């Protein structure tokens, strides 16, 4: 069907129109969540993407980063990706560009921000951070209580 | 148009190459006085006559004077002992001598503070400060004890279990209460005198009122400064009980949101437009060109107003390269860089996805 975005208490939800119409009957302060949460606006009005958006956004990713099997575990625990764990990266990635992190088997693992552009990634030493961690599928287990 | 510019540039470059470099030697009647600590050069020569009438000549004469004097100063600086900072490849740094020229004060001299009450009294009586020893011999304890404070010599008077009624005092009077009262009175008197000294401006931190006697404006300013002196610069600071509520950040105008279940088809089409604009590489707005056009018109107008200086201005305008750092160049660049969907009002609270543009 048709889907749309709705803002509810600083969180952005991706919800089908049918469910949206039904959700209007619940009072606002009692409504916890609706549809899928894509992210939230922080106190200083920055938008933070959550891992729950991964399934929807991964197919449309323009800039991807593939991570080696050894560093995969580290990323899933919430650490940044170092140059030593970097497998591949899309050409022409700008610095601080939002990226989707994949494993070598093309399984989407989460979201990140490129700490270095593709050119710089080649030159930098193996212990430097190349992708800042933003969200990963391990959060489904780690942040079970707080994910909406 | 572009070809003309290039020809002109090449001609000018050839001209410049043909000219010899200006010489480094400078002739002066009187030697300049140098204060290298302040990077100062004093020229006591008679300045060249510059009648007010000749405008451009004056400019060129002033320039040549400045150039000559700067040349002499720089020559002096090269004569100073120098060393390489940060190792062998670092920049060459000269060691300046102590400055000899006294620069004037930025702020006026502080006015002398009035003496405190004790200082006045001491001056009157001729009392002078004696240096006291920190430890005193306590006969009873046969020890060196401190003069006051914890375990003082002579015992703590406040913790006496026995106070003798002095001769001539009322036997029914409570001596303990009396001692306590007197101590409190002494403390209160001391505090009073301290505040009085502050009010008279005798203390180093004068000019500020400790309690009371503060104007409303002063208090307001102090509150504002205190509010902003937090790590978040006062963003999450709750208001004081009787403080008026914060002024709205956008000048009282409320944000207008679309209704929750408004025209959903229109919302979809608007968002797809937005997506298309974000996806395309070139900026979708013609606003940039409109602004540039406006700026060009303004330039032309300004040139037309100046009249006889038009030729020069035209040349300078064309000389300025594309990526110039001029004020107008900067404005143009900013317009181009502005992200696509900035001016659009999204549907009910949908804001532009920031940063993680996947």
TrEMBL record, chain A:
Family: Belongs to the NIP7 family.
CDD domains: Nip7_N_euk, PUA_Nip7-like
Keyword Nucleus: yes
Pfam families hit by this protein: pre-PUA_NIP7 (PF17833), UPF0113 (PF03657)
Keywords: Nucleus, Ribosome biogenesis, RNA-binding
Residue ranges annotated for the PUA domain, each copy included: 63-138
One MF term in the entry's GO annotations: RNA binding
One Gene Ontology cellular component: nucleolus
Subcellular locations according to the entry: Nucleus, Nucleolus
Function: Required for proper 34S pre-rRNA processing and 60S ribosome subunit assembly.
SUPFAM superfamilies with a match to the protein in the record: Pre-PUA domain, PUA domain-like
Record's protein name: 60S ribosome subunit biogenesis protein NIP7 homolog
InterPro entries attached to this UniProt entry: NIP7_N, Nip7_N_euk, PUA, PUA-like_sf, PUA_sf, Ribosomal_synth_fac_NIP7, UPF0113_PUA
Record carries keyword Nucleus: yes
Primary residence: nucleus
From TrEMBL, chain B:
UniProt-listed InterPro entries: Ribosom_reg (IPR007023)
Keywords assigned by UniProt, alphabetized: Nucleus, Ribosome biogenesis
Top-level taxon of origin: Eukaryota
Chief localisation class: nucleus
Disordered: annotated segments: 202-256, 275-358
GO biological process terms, semicolon-separated: endonucleolytic cleavage in ITS1 to separate SSU-rRNA from 5.8S rRNA and LSU-rRNA from tricistronic rRNA transcript (SSU-rRNA, 5.8S rRNA, LSU-rRNA); ribosomal large subunit biogenesis
Keyword Nucleus recorded: yes
Recorded GO CC terms: nucleolus; preribosome, large subunit precursor
Extent of Basic residues compositional bias: 307-346
Keyword Nucleus: yes
Subcellular localization, as worded in the UniProt entry: Nucleus
Functional note: Involved in ribosomal large subunit assembly.
Family per similarity comment: Belongs to the RRS1 family.
PANTHER family named among the record's database cross-references: RIBOSOME BIOGENESIS REGULATORY PROTEIN, RIBOSOME BIOGENESIS REGULATORY PROTEIN HOMOLOG
Protein name: Ribosome biogenesis regulatory protein
């Amino acid at each position: 069907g048709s889907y749309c975005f709705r803002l509810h208490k600083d969180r952005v939800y991706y919800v089908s129109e049918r469910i949206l119409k039904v959700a209007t009957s619940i009072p606002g302060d009692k409504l916890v969540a609706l549809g899928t949460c894509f992210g939230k606006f922080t106190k200083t009005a920055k938008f933070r993407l959550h891992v729950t958006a991964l399934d929807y956004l991964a197919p449309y990713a323009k800039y991807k980063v593939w991570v080696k099997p050894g560093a995969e575990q580290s990323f899933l625990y919430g650490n940044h990706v170092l140059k030593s764990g970097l497998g591949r990266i899309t050409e022409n990635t700008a610095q601080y560009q939002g990226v989707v992190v994949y494993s070598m088997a093309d399984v989407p693992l989460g979201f990140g921000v490129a700490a270095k552009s593709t050119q710089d990634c080649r030159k930098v030493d193996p212990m430097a951070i190349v992708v800042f961690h933003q969200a990963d599928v391990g959060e489904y287990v780690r942040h079970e209580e707080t994910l909406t | 148009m572009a070809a003309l510019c290039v020809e002109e540039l090449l001609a000018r470059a050839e001209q410049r190459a043909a000219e010899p470099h200006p010489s480094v030697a400078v002739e002066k009647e009187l030697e300049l006085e140098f204060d290298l600590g302040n990077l100062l050069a004093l020229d006591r020569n008679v300045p060249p006559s510059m009648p007010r009438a000749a405008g451009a000549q004056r400019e060129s004469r002033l320039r040549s004077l400045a150039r000559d004097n700067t040349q002499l100063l720089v020559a002096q600086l090269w004569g100073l002992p120098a060393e390489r900072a940060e190792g062998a490849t670092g920049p060459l740094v000269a060691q300046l001598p102590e400055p000899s020229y006294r620069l004037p004060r930025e702020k006026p001299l502080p006015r002398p503070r009035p003496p405190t009450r004790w200082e006045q009294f001491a001056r009157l009586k001729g009392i002078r400060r004696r240096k006291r020893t920190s430890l005193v011999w306590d006969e009873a304890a046969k020890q060196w004890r401190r003069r006051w404070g914890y375990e003082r010599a002579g015992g703590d008077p406040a913790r006496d279990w026995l106070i003798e009624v002095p001769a001539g005092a009322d036997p029914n009077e409570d001596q303990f209460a009396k001692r306590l009262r007197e101590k409190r009175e002494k403390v209160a008197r001391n505090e009073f005198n301290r505040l009085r000294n502050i009010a008279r401006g005798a203390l180093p931190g004068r000019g500020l009122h400790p309690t009371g006697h503060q104007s409303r404006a002063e208090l307001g300013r102090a509150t504002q400064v205190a509010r902003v002196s937090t790590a978040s610069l006062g963003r999450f600071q709750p208001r004081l009980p009787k403080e008026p509520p914060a002024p709205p950040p956008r000048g009282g105008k409320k944000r207008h949101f679309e209704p929750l279940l408004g025209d959903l088809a229109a919302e979809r089409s608007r968002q797809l437009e937005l997506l298309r604009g974000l996806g395309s590489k070139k900026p979708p707005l013609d606003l940039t060109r409109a602004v540039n056009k406006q700026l060009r018109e303004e330039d032309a107008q300004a040139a037309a107003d100046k009249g006889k200086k038009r030729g020069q201005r035209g040349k300078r305008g064309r000389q300025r390269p594309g990526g110039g750092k001029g004020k107008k160049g900067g404005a143009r660049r900013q317009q181009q860089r502005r992200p696509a969907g900035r001016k659009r009002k999204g549907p009910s609270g949908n804001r532009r996805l920031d940063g993680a543009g996947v």
